[in-house]
Amino acid sequence: MTQRNTWQRERVREALAESRGFVSAQTLHATLREENTGIGLATVYRALAGLASQGDADSLQSPDGESLYRACATPGHHHHLICRSCGLTVEIEATAVEQWARSTAATHGFIDAEHVVDIFGLCGSCAKARESA
Ligand SMILES: [Zn+2]
Ligand SMILES: [Zn+2]
Ligand SMILES: [Zn+2]
Question: Recorded GO terms, molecular function (predicted)?
Answer without folding.
Answer: DNA-binding transcription factor activity; transcription cis-regulatory region binding; zinc ion binding
